[in-house]
Amino acid sequence: MNLPRGYLSYNQIRLYQNCPLKYYLFYVKEIQFPINDKIFLGIVFHAVLEYYFAKKIAGQELEKFQIIDRFSDQFQSMEDENPVMWESAKGKIKDRGIAFTRYFLNEMAPSIEPLMTEKELETTIPELGIKIKGVLDLVEQDFSITDFKTTTAKWSKSRISNSLLQMVIYKYLFEQNFGNVNPDLMYRIIYSKNAVGIRHQEVKIKSSDVSYDKMLKIIGYVAENISNGVFYENTSYMCGFCEYKNICKDYKKNIL
Ligand code: SF4
């Protein structure tokens, strides 16, 4: 299979499913724009979680203010490294991230027993000959797998359903690397539109929703299309939020 990165990840598959042309522009043409502030906040928050969990795994319990300080430092250093497209005031985004971090430390962290954090796993699917990779935010001591999300509102049923593939891939990767331990799967979603009224939602994925057959079909379909250069446009309301909206028409006529 001729894949731009030599492997597929959930993010690649989701991007291809949303718009094959957008996948082409990002992964094949490597045209990149500054990340938006929501994605930036998620990246900084995940980096702070990794720091917190790594310390806890190593037996070090840090004071809450040290983790909050870490968020501020990380926010600054990552902004220096990555151009960000600020849609809201930078100070408001930062305050929201600090509030998320404080909420996590008070309401969520005490009951979490981490075993691994930001664990990168890969495997080659024997039936397809395709390599897949994923990074697991958190594996707990009972082998349960969590993916954290930061967002503005509670996830709807359809949002959960549309995201199932990510956790199925993570379960598959975990079992291919560590054996068939049938880990529990969970999304922990922290949400609020601003720095007050933070809430979180825990979504446990039922084993009846995990289908490796369906996962293999999707991965096989996406990989085959990418290898064959099938990158048609998928216009929808999402085009209004797409960073390629002003240039994608220039590429439409040249590809399948
Ligand atoms: S603007 Fe729409 S059609 Fe064009 S790349 Fe973005 S999502 Fe695809």
Q: How does this structure look, described?
A:
There is one protein chain. The chain is globular, with a radius of gyration of 19 Å. Helix 1 packs across helix 2 (about 20-30) and helix 4 (about 65-80) runs antiparallel to helix 5. The two termini are about 20 Å apart. It has helices at about 10-20, 20-30, 35-55, 65-80, 90-110, 155-180, 210-225, 250; strands at about 10, 35, 85, 115-125, 130-140, 145-150, 185-190, 200-205. The strands form two sheets. Strands 1, 4, 5, 6, 7 and 8 form a six-stranded mixed sheet that branches. The chain has a two-stranded parallel sheet with strand order 2-3. The protein has about 260 residues and is α/β, with parallel strands linked by helices. The protein is about 45% helix and about 20% strand. The mean pLDDT is about 95. The chain folds into two domains: about 1-30 and about 115-220, Lambda Exonuclease, Chain A, CATH 3.90.320.10; about 35-110, no CATH class. The site of iron/sulfur cluster (SF4) has 12 residues, from helix 2. Iron/sulfur cluster (SF4) binds near residues 22, 233, 238, 244 and 245.
